Prior knowledge:
Mean pLDDT: 92
Order of helices and strands: HHHHHEHHEHHEHHEEEEHH
Shape: elongated
Oligomer: single chain
Structural class: alpha/beta
Radius of gyration: 23 Å
Number of strands: 7
Amino acid sequence: MSTDYQQAREALGVRLRELRLSAPDGRLTGMRLAERYGWNKSKVSRLENGRQTPTPDDLRKWAEATGRPEAYDELLARLRGFESHIRSWRRQLASGHKAVQDTHLGVHAGASVFRGWESSMIFGILQTPDYARSIFTRYAELQRSPRDTEEAVRSRMKRQEALYDSSKRFHLIVWEAALRTLICPPSVLAAQLDRLAGAVGLDTVELGIIPLSAPLRIPPATAFWIYDDRQVIVENWHAELWIDDETSVDTYLRTWRTLRESAVYGVDARNLINAARRALNQPCG
């Protein structure tokens, strides 16, 4: 968890404590507050000390219990402020994957130049429905989130309409390992590779592939997207990071450009895709 995020969470905790101790009806103890809502007795302490992130419902109840219902909007704004940078999967996927896909659909609609790096799977913007279905199913299992797979697939496919928008440009780099990762049945991966080979010819897409044998100046680590060179979205196992400060964005731009030095394009990229496709038809030794 980032220092800025933790400091913001602690600052919100201080504000919660101020409200509790200055309740109009007299000092409200943490125990009484917890008992009122059936919370674990340690929850109030964890919230006030920045060791737990409150939900919007927690904040609403806190404002009501302390006699300051009008403070809810302020508390919610504070929460949204730091959650806009670190968005936990637990919260984002509370109602399933479709809501997350719709959020990204909105971000894509507002940007023109995209730079992406992916090391372990095919970019969502280039996925077939069956491949996307496998990805959403696996992640729903991992995150123990509601299954809304078909709705999420439809939203992802709608985002792909941007590939045919002449005002947009996608500069994408993928590691060769992603072409061979069996996160789906071999037949699904075969169709996905056929789709990927077709993307090489789109005039809105520049697709680079880093061969497994290529020398690398930096490790092929976490996947990320850069939107119009001003915002970055990074996916980790526990959360998405939404980054917009200039220094950090510049770091990701340098990272992307450094990775690009090892990538191949055009015919060479298509040859790597075709090699991965042929390997699917070879019997295991």
